[in-house]
TrEMBL record:
This is Bifunctional protein PutA. GO terms for cellular component: cytoplasmic side of plasma membrane. Pathway: Amino-acid degradation; L-proline degradation into L-glutamate; L-glutamate from L-proline: step 1/2; Amino-acid degradation; L-proline degradation into L-glutamate; L-glutamate from L-proline: step 2/2. In the C-terminal section; belongs to the aldehyde dehydrogenase family. In the N-terminal section; belongs to the proline dehydrogenase family. InterPro entries: Ald_DH/histidinol_DH, Ald_DH_C, Ald_DH_N, Aldehyde_DH_dom, Bifunct_PutA, FAD-linked_oxidoreductase-like, PRODH, PRODH_PutA_dom_I. Its EC number is 1.5.5.2, 1.2.1.88. Keywords: DNA-binding, FAD, Flavoprotein, NAD, Oxidoreductase, Proline metabolism, Repressor, Transcription, Transcription regulation. Residues 171-452 form the Proline dehydrogenase domain. Coiled coil: none annotated. It catalyses: L-proline + a quinone = (S)-1-pyrroline-5-carboxylate + a quinol + H(+); L-glutamate 5-semialdehyde + NAD(+) + H2O = L-glutamate + NADH + 2 H(+).
């Protein structure tokens, strides 16, 4: 059933895969043991390195670009601003956004300080950056002149690191270097192909480049001729490991044609290195090319190998074996690695068992030398090409090689001053090749930003001392062997293994490496075993209950796949189930919180152990893709561990509510289902769980595991069935509350039902969302489209976090829309039993019909409707392909469409505020994504958009407790956020505890001053005035207005939680004293209280203007979002509020005094902090080979 990848039979290939995420200490130990450098060779290398370093320093020309790069290291505010300018300014098309981008970046840092560090005459830094070393021109003071100079500076940097606009121009420009003994490797500015059209266009560009390079050479042979660097993902729109077979069939003929052409010209083509997940794809293609008989005798097939990967030595053995079998010689360009930050971040986020790369620079250097030794030893099969800018590495390899044939390589703009003393007969007589980026400078903006980071790394290496005294003697920090002795191969403490991202006490949920064949083959085997027996589900209750006849459950992706059967409970049995829950309430509440937490942690561990079975169920029952199913399981595990830890911190002295009904949706069959249950149980409540009808099998299995892990059946009962069962549970007055996730309409029905009661039951609702992303013209269009596609169409857009609306600045709209349409056509649609599938089936026929009808209706009103083609073998009754609807304006964006439908609307740069207002006017407030390189603009959008979760320069679908907690307000929910500090507290009695804050609250001083003045004028007695004055002082601190809390994060993320004050609070009932006590707190939080004309405070509203307002019918005021009830509100008031259009009004029980913390709306922020994929702070923190301290005391 599940078919992921064909198995590899080659022992050498299995060895490569097995080394993927090896223990770092073991890998380093093997490298250390295998690297043999005689003492005399090491001494010679040290001497040569010193000579090369000194010669390079003496001959280095201080170009304005490098002066600037050195004066603005990327870890400084100025350096980061410069990297962001270099990355974003060249691609920003309109002047309005360019000027705002410049203002934003030029406001960062102390540029006068930068001038002082240069030890030059303090002229305008902008003039100096532009290359005007000596000038009589007046220092520019106006914004226009400053911006002009900044643009010149960015252009100067880009020109420094790029060669020319065309290959011909570059060859002509660097003719002198060619005569000095250099060859060139020409690189083209081609991104990963997002569509077939892009892949074909890129392939043609590469073909033309081979002709051009061939014409420049004189057929001198592949070792001395110029060559081409080729990026495989640029010519294949699905260059992913899970698509290995398709990649092979698609790319091999194309590559064969290219290499045949290169063979004719006697030039080589080197395949560029990409992310570690793509290494084995490249290896398979190289193996296939080497075996092609038409390429026999051709030695120009090249591949780039990254030494920071733990697989590198095994890859060399594989390549050498491949070359010998096919009687050829392969080229291997050895680099240290260019995606280190991304590799660290990806492994942490995915919860993998280790890193594919080394966590210390010294370990990478050791690996480089070990790999160099292996390459030199395989000279019969491999032609080694060493790309490095480190004099120590160059010297070591030169001495290791002796008379062996090799080639050094460097990047244009970074390494020529070193290799001028290596290349040519007058120097070390070594072949040298320069990597020359050609194309328009703007196309290399990301590349230029990364080179600034490389320059920073080189400077760090240059500051290392020649020798250093350590506990075990004098050692050289520059020598990887010495460094390995010092570190003992240990992972850098600034980079905990991904499983320990949150510390030793709370494990990160385990992930799956979808690029590891050994993992995938075992997973496939276990998932298929789980399919052999059908799944059965029935009510899980304390006593036997009557049930309906079982119904069969079919896979929405395959009508022939009967997964199992479900027996729904009869509605009449609900009463007795609740009676049993009520009986056990005091017994479960009396269980020590530690014991409850331990049971949840055992469940989390067991759920991970049952991963293949649970993935099988989730994929087949809900139609989720393999990755989305894994995300479901990981989130469920994370919820359990998080709530277990929170319960021990918060619930030891907090009484539970009682019996809670948990109603969960089909689109989150495990994560939300388990999250609700885990929180309720951790807080000491008994639970009756009612899962969605469509995904009962998954829920049933989860409940069975929970029971096996120590949760008593009486404390957790499961009721199978449809809406009638949910209604019966909600209407029973004995329940303590409802935890609900689903549609806004259903949430309002539940609220209406609960409103009929005389008490105030708990109601926590997570409801619908019109999730939006706003992109201005400073964004990287390639990254934007990647994030939009994933956010909108993963699992056919059937999840609450899916992107529904993209608002894109009209200056880039045509380009973005065209790219999205083409890329959507390239998404893989089908049965998620194939792990490569990205868009699965629609959950059921009713949903399919509703979505289809909406799309047909949109065709009559939208500017354009683009629907990707559906593969012929798929049923039109089960699938809906990705659909992109371009709207004329936002008035046509009315409701949430729960499927693979993305709306796009354009906005003018000067109409951003109006666009935000229109979005807010929809009433939803769940997810908002922002794609912009302008920090001030992102901040402005964040502060004005109504959203519970804000994602900056990243996709909008990630949710992790205490990292990116989930939940919204308005029509999107009642709060508190799942996975944040208030959720458990809402499920118990007592006042809430304020979380740990990284930024303290700012009380509304003016409002407090007015309230304190009124206290003196009210006529209260002395003790009451003292009490109220004390409350006013307390409200200054016990407050969350503008407060901020830092959340956990992986490398490359910045996660924070903030709180917003709702604008209008209806204050109901109470005495004058209790009402004043509540008003003081409300005023301190910057909110306005609304009271009726008969309220004790009504007479004060003229003297409390802005703090208090009076309304004849507060329940009818749509601007009122909360009701603070100082006395129990009558059912009629609650019914009136429930019947009101718009969002659910949150009712705060303040009969024992207002708990101010309950009023605030939580907003989480998640920002991608990388610039062009680089994290300079992380690099600096892990650089030193002899110490484990963090750079500048910063956090990683």
């Amino acid at each position: 059933m599940f078919q992921f990848l064909p198995q590899h039979t080659s022992p050498l290939r299995r060895a490569v895969t097995a080394a993927y995420r090896r223990d770092e200490a073991q890998s380093v130990a093997d490298l250390f043991a295998g690297l043999h450098i005689p003492p005399e060779q090491r001494d010679a290398a040290d001497g040569l390195a010193h000579t090369l370093r000194e010669k390079s320093r003496q001959s280095a020309a201080e170009t304005p670009a490098l002066v600037l790069a050195d004066a603005c290291p990327p870890v400084s505010p100025e350096g980061r601003a410069l990297m962001e300018l270099v990355e974003a300014l060249p691609r920003t098309p309109d002047e309005t956004t360019r000027q705002e981008l410049l203002r934003d970046k030029l406001s960062a840092g102390d540029w006068d300080k930068i001038l002082r560090h240069t030890e030059e005459e303090p002229v305008s830094w902008l003039q100096k950056l532009a290359g005007h070393r000596e000038t009589e021109e007046a220092v520019p003071t106006d914004a226009e002149s400053r911006s002009k100079k900044a643009v010149q500076s960015v252009n100067m940097l880009t020109r420094h690191f790029t060669a020319a606009a065309t290959i011909e121009e570059a060859a002509k420009k660097f003719k002198k270097r060619e005569k000095a003994g250099y060859a060139f490797s020409f690189a083209l500015p081609l991104n990963e192909a997002a569509s077939e059209a892009e892949a074909q266009a890129h392939y043609q560009i590469y073909t033309d480049a081979v002709h051009t390079i061939g014409a420049l050479t004189r057929r001198t042979g592949v070792y001395t001729a110029h060559n081409l660097s080729l990026k495989l993902s640029a010519i294949c729109p699905f260059f992913r490991h899970l698509c290995a077979q398709q990649v092979h069939y698609y790319l091999l003929p194309k590559l064969k044609t290219l290499f045949l052409l290169a063979k004719e010209y006697q030039i080589s083509i080197c395949l560029e290195a990409e992310e570690s997940t793509r290494l084995e794809l490249s290896l398979s293609l190289v193996e296939a090319l080497a075996a092609e008989t038409v390429l026999a005798g051709y030695h120009g097939i090249g591949i780039t190998l990254q030494a920071y990967q733990k697989r590198a030595p095994a890859v060399i053995e594989l390549l050498a074996d491949c070359a010998r079998k096919n009687q050829t010689r392969l080229m291997v360009r050895l680099v240290k690695g260019g995606y280190w930050s991304q590799e660290i971040q990806a492994a942490q986020s995915a919860g993998l068992n280790g890193y594919p790369v080394y966590t210390r620079k010294a370990h990478t250097d050791l690996s480089y030398l070990a790999c160099a030794q292996l390459l030199l030893a395989a000279e019969d099969a491999l032609y080694p090409q060493f790309a490095t800018h480190n004099p120590d590495t160059v010297a070591a390899i030169h001495e290791m090689a002796q008379e062996r044939e090799l080639e050094f390589q460097c990047l244009h703009g970074l390494g020529e001053t070193l290799f001028d003393h290596v290349a040519g007969e007058k120097q070390l007589s070594r072949r040298c090749r320069i990597y020359l980026p050609v194309g328009e400078a703007a196309q290399w903006s990301d590349y230029t930003a990364r080179r600034l980071c490389d320059r920073f790394t080189l400077n760090l290496a240059d500051t290392l001392p020649e020798t250093e005294e350590t506990a075990d003697g004098i050692r050289s920090p520059r020598n990887p062997l010495d460094a390995a002795v010092s570190t003992q191969g240990k992972t850098h403490p600034a980079l905990p293994l991904p499983r320990y991202l949150y510390g030793q006490t709370r494990l990160n949920a385990i992930g799956i490496d979808f690029s590891d064949d050994l993992v995938l083959n075992r997973l496939q085997e276990l998932m298929n075993l789980a399919s052999e027996d059908g799944f059965q589900a029935a009510p899980v209750t304390v006593m036997d209950t009557p049930r309906h006849e079982a119904r069969f459950v079919q896979n929405p992706a395959d009508a022939n796949d009967a997964i199992g059967a479900v027996s729904p409970i009869r509605e009449a049995a609900v009463h007795n189930v609740l009676s049993a829950a009520k009986i056990v309430e005091p017994h479960w509440a009396a269980v020590p919180v530690q014991q409850r937490a331990d049971a949840l942690c055992r469940f989390a561990d067991t759920l991970e152990n049952c991963l293949p079975e649970m993935l099988n169920l989730i994929i087949r029952e809900s139609g989720k893709t393999a990755r989305a199913a894994l995300d479901e399981l990981r989130l469920a595990v994370d919820y359990c561990r998080y709530y277990a830890a929170e319960a021990e911190r918060l619930c030891a002295d907090r009484a539970p509510v009682g019996t809670l009904v948990c109603i969960s949706p089909w689109h989150s069959p495990l994560a939300v289902f388990v999250g609700q249950i885990a929180a309720a149980l951790a807080a000491g409540n008994t639970v009756i769980a009612k899962p969605a009808l469509q995904t009962t099998l998954t829920a049933y299995r989860a409940v069975n595991i929970l029971h096996s892990c120590g949760i008593p059946k009486a404390a957790l009962q499961l009721l199978t069935g449809g809406a009638d069962i949910g209604a019966a549970l909600v209407q029973d007055p004995r329940i303590g509350g409802v935890l609900f996730s689903g549609s806004t309409a259903t949430a309002k029905l539940i609220n209406h039902s609960l409103g009929q009661r005389s008490d105030l039951p708990v109601f926590v609702a997570e409801s619908g969302g019109q999730n939006v992303m706003i992109a201005d013209s400073s964004t990287d269009i390639h990254r934007l489209c990647r994030d939009v596609l994933h956010s909108a169409f993963d699992s056919a857009g059937q999840h609450s976090t899916a992107l529904r609306l993209l608002c894109v600045q009209d200056d880039i709209a045509d380009q973005v829309i065209a790219k999205l349409r083409a890329a959507a056509d390239n998404l893989i649609i089908g049965n998620p039993a194939d792990a490569a599938v990205e868009v699965g089936p629609i959950i059921d026929q009713e949903s399919h019909d509703n979505i289809s009808a909406y799309i047909e209706q949109a065709k009559t009103t939208a500017l354009h409707v683009h629907q990707s083609p559906l593969p012929h073998h798929l049923s039109h009754h089960a699938y809906i392909p990705p659909t992109i609807i371009e709207l004329a304006d936002l008035s046509h964006f009315q409701r949430e469409v729960f499927g693979p439908v993305l709306h796009i609307c354009r906005f003018h740069a000067d109409q951003l505020k109006q666009t935000i207002a229109q979005i807010n006017g929809k009433g939803y407030a769940l997810n908002c994504g922002i794609h912009s390189r302008i920090r001030s603009r992102s901040d402005d959008i964040s502060q004005n958009i109504e959203a519970g979760n804000i994602y900056i320069n990243r996709r909008t679908t990630d949710t992790f407790p205490d990292v990116q907690p989930f939940g919204g307000h308005g029509l999107s929910g009642t709060g508190p956020k799942a996975g944040a500090g208030f959720y458990l507290q809402r499920l118990g009695h007592g006042r809430w505890r304020i979380p740990t804050l990284s930024r303290e609250a700012f009380a509304d001083a003016q409002a407090l001053q007015a309230a304190e003045k009124m206290i003196r004028e009210t006529g209260f007695d002395h003790d009451t005035r003292v009490k109220l004055s004390g409350l006013a002082g307390q409200a200054k601190i016990h407050n969350l207005r503008h407060a901020q809390s830092q959340l956990a994060h992986s490398s490359g993320e910045e996660n924070t939680l903030t709180w917003r004050s709702p604008k209008h609070i209806w204050l109901h009932g109470g005495t004058q004293e209790s009402a004043f006590a509540a008003l003081i707190q409300i005023a301190a939080a910057g909110m306005q209280a609304v009271v009726g004309y008969d309220h004790p405070l009504a007479g004060w509203h003229t003297r409390l203007n802005g703090i208090l307002r009076v309304s004849s019918h507060p329940e009818q005021q749509t601007f009122v979002s909360h009701l603070v009830s100082l006395e129990l509100p009558p059912p009629q008031i609650k019914m009136d509020l429930a019947a009101r259009k718009g969002a659910i009004v949150r009712i705060i029980d303040a009969r024992e005094g207002l708990d101010l913390l309950r009023l605030f709306e939580e907003v989480s922020y998640c920002a991608d902090t990388a610039v062009a994929g680089c994290l300079p702070e992380l690099i600096a923190a892990t650089f030193s080979p002899m110490q484990d301290t963090l750079a500048n005391g910063g956090n990683v």
